[in-house]
């Protein structure tokens, strides 16, 4: 068996349906793939958003999970439709992606049940929460007491993804431990903010790892899950080389995926 640090785990990164000059394309942001490769030390593969319901309910999620060592659920422009958590119907102008919903929600549930390490980012943390029975604020900026966490209206990436506010790490929890092991002092880290939805009722089994100063849930984990499960509301994938905590999160995820890879290889050899 090769030593642990020589294994490059296979990590799925979900690709969603996008319009490109009138053509339907399956794509994801470069920064997600780059962070998986560089900060997690993994091999990244794109997982298409095909929609389980669109294929008679037989999209091979179990086969996919068998072949992966980890899964990153990315952010995106679309919002999870409220009927998945018994919420009120969206306003007509709200951007949605039912194909993604019907792929990533069952994928998140099955991945967690099967012990596949999973890292949800922005929309991804929301998918984890809804998949496990939690709910969302569909228009977070209208909730009394919460600030406007939506993306700054600018074409400059550095401004869009620049630091916006601190999050407070829950004492004695996984994120605080990851920060400590990375040499980060204190219980606050500064993050970006580009989301219109946010967690409302936190699903059973998830624990809150980080909150913003206005009380928005910014990070979760699942201590009793059979595998590593974390989610963050900010875009941790943006320039991890310049953000020690984000890089530490990707490393912790990569380490969990590597352990899964070693176990999977051992089972294949046996």
Please tell me how large the radius of gyration is. Answer: 18 Å
Question: What name is given to the CATH topology?
Answer: Rossmann fold
The helix tally amounts to: 7
Mean pLDDT: 93
Structural class: alpha/beta
State the low-pLDDT regions, or none: none
Relative strand content: 15-25%
CATH superfamily: Class I glutamine amidotransferase (GATase) domain
What is the CATH class?
A: Alpha Beta
Helix content: 25-40%
* Secondary-structure element order, N to C: EEHEHEHEHEHEHEEEEEH
Task: Count the beta strands.
Answer: 12
Q: Structurally, how many domains make up the residues? A: 1
The biggest beta sheet reads: 10 strands, mixed
Assign the CATH architecture: 3-Layer(aba) Sandwich
Shape verdict:
globular
Oligomer: single chain
Please give the alpha-carbon distance between the first and last residues.
11 Å
């Amino acid at each position: 068996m090769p030593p642990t640090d020589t294994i490059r785990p296979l990590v799925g990164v979900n690709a969603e349906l996008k319009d490109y000059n009138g053509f339907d394309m399956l794509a994801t942001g470069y920064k997600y793939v780059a962070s998986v490769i560089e900060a997690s030390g993994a091999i990244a593969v794109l997982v298409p958003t095909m929609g389980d319901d669109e294929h008679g309910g037989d999209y091979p999620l179990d086969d996919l999970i068998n072949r992966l060592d980890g899964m990153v659920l990315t952010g995106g422009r679309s919002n999870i439709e409220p009927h998945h958590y018994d919420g009120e119907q969206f306003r007509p102008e709200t951007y949605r992606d039912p194909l993604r919903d019907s792929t990533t929600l069952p994928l998140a549930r099955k991945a967690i049940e099967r012990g596949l390490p999973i890292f949800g980012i922005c929309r991804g943390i929301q998918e984890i929460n809804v998949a496990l029975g939690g709910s969302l604020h569909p228009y977070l900026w209208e909730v009394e007491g919460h600030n406007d966490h939506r993306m700054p209206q600018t074409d400059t990436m550095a401004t869009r993804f620049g630091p916006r506010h601190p999050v407070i790490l829950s004492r004695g929890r996984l994120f605080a431990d990851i920060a400590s092991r990375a040499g980060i002092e204190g219980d606050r880290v500064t993050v970006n903010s580009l989301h219109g939805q946010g967690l409302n009722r936190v699903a059973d089994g998830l624990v809150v790892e980080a909150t913003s100063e206005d009380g928005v849930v910014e990070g979760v984990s699942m201590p009793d899950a059979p595998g590593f499960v974390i989610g963050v509301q900010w875009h941790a994938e943006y320039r991890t080389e310049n953000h020690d905590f984000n890089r530490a999160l990707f490393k912790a995820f990569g380490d969990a995926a590597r352990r899964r890879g070693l176990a999977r290889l051992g089972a294949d050899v046996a």
